[in-house]
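Reviewer 2 asked us to include a model.

Predict the structure of this chain.
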Amino acid sequence: MSRIAKNPIKITNEVQCNFVNGKFSAKGKLGEMEISVNTNFRVEINDGEVKVLPIKENNNDPNWGTTRALVANTIDGVTKGFTKTLELNGTGYRASVSGSKLKLELGFSHDIQFDIPKDIKIECPKQNIINITSINKEKLGAAAAKIRSYRKPEPFKGKGIKYSDEYIFRKEGKKK
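Predicted model (structure tokens):
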């Protein structure tokens, strides 16, 4: 039995939640999101809290905690939003935003043009820092991983694109 799934999700007055025909929707100050809930579960919305409950009485479904986490992420997304920060380490590595494209200069013979998805906002406060924000945690992580995949950090010099809270394990070079 999941302990996480039994915990209710606290909501404030600024969030409007609705559950109809297997679809959970939340509307907050940052926008509106809708997810489809697993058919084995239902969502109860009471004053100030949301609970994810199984339809069957004795449920040992491992998706119970996952479903509760998806509902919680939807509520967090429309109230607070999610943010990831990427750092570019390397000589001449730069990033800039122009319109709906992120231009990356990563030491290749050509610049990389990354199309910014419509649900995501990307800012470059410095040439080597990329801030990505969104209300959808799944799309945010996918976009950050795609940008990072263009030049993953290498262990010898640490050059590449890394998350701001990521630690790169450094290796010692060749010895004579």
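The helical segments are 63-79, 137-149. The chain has two domains: 9-79, 82-163. We have added this to the supplementary material.
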